[in-house]
Amino acid sequence: MSGDQTRVTKISSLGVPSERTDSCLVQIHGPELGKKYVLEDAEFTIGRDQQNNIVVELDNVSRRHARILGRGGRMFVEDLGSTNGTYLNDQEVLQAHPLRSGDLIKVGGSIFKFLDGDNIETQYHETIYTLTIADGLTGINNKRYFLEYLEREMGRSHRYQRTLSLMMFDIDHFKRINDVHGHLAGDYVLREMAQSIKRLVRREQCFARYGGEEFAVVMPEDGPDKARLFAEKIRRLVEEKVFIFEDKEIPVTISIGIAEMSGDMNEPTPFIKVADTNLYKAKKSGRNRVVG
Questions:
Q1: What residues are paired with 208 via a beta bridge?
Q2: H-type helices in 162-206, by residue range?
Q3: How do residues 109-162 score in pLDDT, each as one tens digit?
Q4: How many CB atoms lie within 10 A of CB 105?
Q5: Would you say 48 and 146 are in contact if contact means Cβ atoms under 8 Å apart?
Q6: CA 230, CA 52: separation in Å to the nearest integer?
Q7: Residue 73: its pLDDT value, please?
Q8: Taking the CB of residue 14, how many other CB atoms lie within 10 A of it?
Q9: How far apart are alpha carbons 86 and 102 in whole angstroms?
Q10: Looking at residue 258, what DSSP letter applies?
């Protein structure tokens, strides 16, 4: 691929874009997190083959997976007969579809955010900032934000002698979901579950993806009784929710471990360890249950 075919600008959280443009893609989930691709060609391809404008080296990405097209002053996304399909805002792309600023394009295990308009640089910097505190796949807080939040709340709880509870949970048999239904289905389950639970979480609480299929909820000023009630509410929500991917229903349950902060806990690690130990007990005792 020659240098005059596309301009690619990689920017760190401290960087400044070299040029202003009308539209671009930013990778918000995948191997090149935060990378910016300026869309200045009439056709802009995405795939595993090195001849593409955007190369995504993942097994679930086809050699020539999708393309972005410029037509009549608008940008469109189109699947190129890929094995796993291209998704626009979680809907499979079956024909060329127009793009709007903020749209999310999923290509295999990577997600790109489309930015367009006069305020593209503002949108870009907001996107980069969000990547520092949010998980690109699920849209909830990431591990970094969670650890900072938990440390801050532990200090506040010690200072004011207030209770603090922590919930750690993960999806039961998640590997089986990936093996039977595919990794795209697994991503769908993670995203759908996270967004459903997010609606139950109060503003003063912190809900985050801790890693893989494990999640955490920090509950300031909630004792163990209230924490258990809330955990049971979340467990029941997931068990009763219908997950359907490509016309196939996927049964999903979660196991939950709960911990209450004790006076000798001065940093997050021992607190998380207690919750994780109870999560392990929930799994060993049959899964789809709350322990703690």
A1: 141, 216
A2: 174-181, 183-198
A3: 999 999 998 899 999 999 999 999 999 999 999 999 999 999 999 999 999 999
A4: 23
A5: no
A6: 48
A7: 86
A8: 6
A9: 17
A10: E
**1 has pLDDT over 60:** no
Instruction: Give this prediction's pTM.
Output: 0.84
Tokens for 167? 């919930």
How many residues are given for the chain? 292
Residue in the structure block whose two tokens are 């990689």: 10
Q: What pLDDT sits at residue 13?
A: 37
Q: How does strand 254-260 pair with strand 248-249? A: unpaired
What DSSP element (H or E) covers 229? Answer: helix 224-240
Mean confidence (pLDDT) of the chain? 91
d(CA 242, CA 257): 23
Q: Once rounded to an integer, what is the mean pLDDT over residues 193-197?
A: 98
Sequence-ordered list of residues with C-beta below 8 angstroms from that of 112, at least 6 positions apart, any chain: 25, 26, 27, 28, 37, 46, 54, 104, 105, 106
Q: How many CB atoms lie within 10 A of CB 160?
A: 8
Which residues are within 8 A (CB) of 138 and not within 5 positions of it... i.e. 6 or more apart? 190, 191, 194, 195, 209
Short-list 1, 112, 97, CA closest to 56: 112
Catalytic residues: 213
